[in-house]
Write a structure and sequence with these properties.
Blueprint lengths: L8 E4 L5 E14 L17 E3 L5 E9 L5 E10 L7 E2 L9 E3 L22 E2 L4 E2 L5 E5 L2 E11 L7 E8 L4 E7 L1 E4 L1 E4 L19 H7 L5 E5 L1 E3 L24 E6 L16 E4 L7 E3 L6 E3 L9 E4 L8 E8 L2 E2 L11 E4 L4 E8 L2 E2 L4 E4 L6 E8 L9 E4 L5 E9 L2 E4 L3 E4 L2 E10 L2 E5 L3 E4 L2 E5 L2 E2 L3 E2 L6 E4 L2 E5 L2 E2 L6 E2 L3 E2 L10 E3 L4 E4 L64 E6 L4 E2 L20 E6 L5 E4 L17 E4 L6 E4 L6 E12 L9 E8 L6 E2 L4 E4 L9 E4 L3 E2 L13
Parallel strand pairs: 2-13, 3-14, 8-11, 9-11, 15-16, 16-18, 17-19, 18-23, 19-23, 22-25, 23-26, 24-27, 25-28, 26-29, 28-30, 29-31, 30-33, 31-34, 32-35, 33-36, 34-37, 34-38, 35-39, 36-40, 37-41, 38-42, 40-43, 41-44, 47-54
Antiparallel strand pairs: 1-13, 2-4, 4-11, 5-6, 5-10, 5-12, 7-11, 12-14, 20-21, 45-46, 48-52, 49-51, 49-53, 50-52, 53-54, 55-58, 56-57
């Protein structure tokens, strides 16, 4: 795929339906990042742009009229892939168009303009309009000039073309002359499940291999990668001799984004937590990873790639971007650099890493390896979970002169010998809003190990890490380690070395929602909600991205003070207080023989201490089945046990379906008690810790006997009172347990 050269075309029309005396002579592309006067420019005047995004762009035109008479003008914006047309009008409908008018958060439709382009000194300037939704707009000029600015964005229909734009005057025809604004547009699509032409030009025709996209990419490109698993297919020198050396490599000016379903038309539509895009070094796809932290163990990974990404003095800089992907399955257990950086190896290279999850990687030395960085690393929204860093931590920084800055980080359940979470040596490093928990170091520094460095921790939580030796939470030696507005555990053995304690530090339980399950969000009652320092973090979201903003008030979710740690408490979404686990009681139900028991929510006692708000029964789990009869969910309410309606142990029934929960005893059987099953109740957050017994009593019901042959009676001698008769009573069925037949005289 070749890069399309920028083209600037000035076309002067001299014939046809021409609106004489009106000249459109200037344009300029602009970012939609500010007001009419403050938004930044993407390029100089009359200069084409090379664009790969799907976010808003603003296109500003200047035109003037040297006619002394006033004329009303009605304009529309069109685009084409050819200056000769055909031209397509840009509206708000993006169903088939490649561009649409787009609403801006930075101005309102029809807002007036000021002179922002180089002014035409021969004509007085009059205000034009800012346009975001009006597909036809008007102006009147009398020997004057004006400027109009229009907000547009590409749709998912945009293709790898050079696009031209043009204003049409619907009243008077073409301008006397005009300049075409030009955009060279290119996105490269990757989707492992695509079945099209495999050329990367659209989601339908996406490359199925990330390496294919990297091979054709050039500076300025964006690569969009749909959910799935992608593996390296060649070595860093482009050979294919040793699969363990297969690796990906970033390119300067190329941005890789993951987290797509494969239908999106905008970066803002992706969700990299839901649509996990995994770059894996597990060649055979058979890794076995068990345990967490100290108990973390790997097997079946001896064939894995040494590094998922490898950059060794290759000149990769911050213009290379990796955003929204998971790095997994690296195993750096080799030699000569192949024992460092199982996830990403960076020596004298500092690509921009954002929204990256490192998990299930194993290395002799560090999972994300940053060495000898002169300008420091730019890192944000990184998660390190269940990684074995070998001698050193999951994040390894050493020998750098530039300050590396990591903002929004979660380091949980990793292990190493020195520094389970972070190992920082001979490097200036600043970490803002990170959470370290559950990490283990077999020697020292369960959460953080810093030596011969200047390490600054701002708005961080360091809690419940452990070490076999010194410094469960933090170990530092020959370093200056400063804590500002941090939560840290400070019991015996937790801190080794003298820390520099700034303002706002607190040594108390952060109140994680569920640390045992890896949920390190904070309850609204945590002492670390709304108690951070806003100046340390300029990112707009917490580590979850999307709608999870920063600097929110716990009271109402409006603007407030930043929290400590990786997560920001979100009012109405994150739990305000620790949930009280519900309880129940043993219960019983009584029915008559040969009848079903139809349950209601009232049959399952529910006790919960939560009062603000009060919890209610949300579901029931059947933990063991009755030994007699059948418990079933009558989905169609036909009182029949249809296929798959009989329940299994551990089946859960939501409260809305409890009215369909029924029990049927064995036919013609009864007893008090008859049988039982056990259950748990849930408040929608937790099930009761104990199971409770539901006893079923079945009352007997007398069944009339039925004969199957006609009885006969044969007198013996004279029939008299007290005499004897012979009788053949025939065969009788009686579903009751009473097998006696009584013959009475009428």
């Amino acid at each position: 795929m070749k890069k399309v050269s920028f083209i600037l075309v000035i076309f002067i029309l001299l014939s046809g339906n021409i609106y004489a005396h009106t000249i459109q002579d200037k344009y300029r592309w602009r970012n939609d990042d500010g007001s009419e006067t403050s938004a930044t420019w993407k390029a100089d005047e009359n200069t084409a742009i090379y664009y790969t995004g799907t976010e808003n762009l603003r296109l500003r035109f200047q035109f003037y009229m040297h006619e002394s008479s006033a004329y009303d003008n009605y304009l529309e914006l069109y685009y084409s892939v050819n200056t000769g047309g055909p031209w397509t009008k840009i509206t708000s409908d993006g169903s088939s168009n490649h561009f649409v008018l787009s609403e801006s958060d930075n101005f309102t439709d029809q807002e007036t303009t000021t002179g922002q382009l180089t002014q035409n000194i021969e004509h007085d300037f009059v205000s034009g309009k800012m346009i975001e939704s009006s597909d036809t707009f008007s102006f009147t000029l009398v020997s004057q000039s004006t400027e109009y600015e229009i907000c547009i964005k590409p749709t998912g229909n945009a293709e790898n073309h050079t696009y031209y734009f043009k204003l049409f005057n619907t009243t008077h025809g073409d301008f006397e002359s005009y300049v075409y604004p030009v955009m060279a547009y290119k996105l490269i699509f990757v989707d492992a499940s695509a079945s099209g032409s495999n050329d990367g030009t659209s989601w339908a025709n996406a490359y199925t291999s990330l390496q294919s996209a990297l091979d054709v990419s050039i500076s300025g490109d964006q690569i969009w990668v749909a959910k799935g698993i992608y593996k390296p297919s060649k070595e860093s020198d482009n050979t294919m001799d040793e699969p363990r050396k297969f690796t990906f490599q970033l390119k300067n000016g190329v941005e890789i984004y993951g987290g797509f379903v494969g239908t999106e038309t905008s970066l803002s539509q992706r969700d990299f937590y839901v649509n996990e895009t995994i770059l894996s070094g597990d060649i055979n796809g058979d890794d076995v990873v068990t345990g967490t932290g100290e108990s973390l163990s790997f097997s079946n990974n001896n064939e894995n790639c040494y590094h998922v990404f490898y950059h060794d003095n290759s000149g990769v800089n911050s213009s290379a971007v990796l955003d929204g992907l998971t790095i997994s399955g690296g195993n750096a257990n080799g030699r000569a650099n192949h024992d460092y950086g199982a996830g990403i190896y960076n020596e004298q290279c500092n690509p921009t890493l954002k929204n990256i999850i490192f998990k299930n990687n194993q290395s002799a030395t560090g999972v994300l390896y940053l060495y000898d960085l002169s300008t420091g690393a730019s890192l944000s929204n990184l998660i390190f979970e269940n990684n074995d860093g070998g001698y050193y931590g999951a994040l390894y920084i050493e020998g750098s002169t530039g300050t590396s800055i990591l903002t929004n980080a979660l380091m949980i359940n990793n292990k190493g010998e020195y520094g389970g979470g972070l190992y920082n040596s001979d490097s200036p490093t600043t970490i803002n809003n990170a959470t370290f928990s559950g990490n283990y170091a077999s020697s020292s520094g369960g959460g953080v190990y810093s030596t011969s460095s200047v390490l600054t921790l701002n708005n961080c939580i360091i809690w419940n890490n452990s070490a076999g030796g010194e410094g469960n939470e933090i170990y530092h030696s020959g370093s200056i380690t400063t804590l500002n507005n941090c939560c840290y555990k400070d019991d015996d053995g937790d801190i080794f070395g003298s820390l520099t304690i700034g303002d706002g530090n607190i040594a108390s339980d952060p109140l994680f929602v569920d640390a045992n399950d890896g949920n390190m969000t904070l309850y609204g009652t945590s002492p670390f909600v709304d108690t951070g320092d806003d100046t340390y973090n300029t990112l707009l979201t917490d580590i979850r991205g999307g709608d999870f903003g920063r600097k929110l008030s716990k009271v109402d979710g409006n603007a407030g003070t930043i929290d400590m740690g990786a997560y920001e408490y979100k009012f109405g979404v994150d739990p305000a207080t620790e949930n009280k686990i519900p309880t129940s009681n043993n219960a019983e139900a009584t029915i008559n023989e040969d009848n079903d028991k139809i349950f209601t929510s009232m049959d399952f006692p529910f006790n919960d201490l939560d009062t603000d708000p009060a919890d209610e029964l949300q579901s029931v789990e059947i933990t063991t089945l009755p030994s007699l009869g059948t418990i079933y969910l009558d989905g169609n309410n036909n009182n029949e046990i249809d296929n798959d309606e009989a329940l299994d142990a551990q089946d859960e029934i939501e409260v809305a379906n409890i009215a369909k929960l029924k029990y049927r005893p064995v036919a013609n059987k009864y007893g008090t008690p008859y049988t039982a099953f056990t259950f748990k109740v849930s408040d929608g957050k937790n099930y009761s810790e104990d199971s409770y017994t539901m006893t079923i009593n079945v009352n007997p019901v007398n069944d009339a006997p039925e004969n199957t042959t006609v009885p006969t009676i044969t007198p013996v001698g004279t029939i008299r009172i007290g005499g004897t008769i012979g009788a053949t009573v025939g065969e009788w069925n009686d579903d009751d347990d009473n097998n006696q037949i009584e013959v009475k005289r009428k």
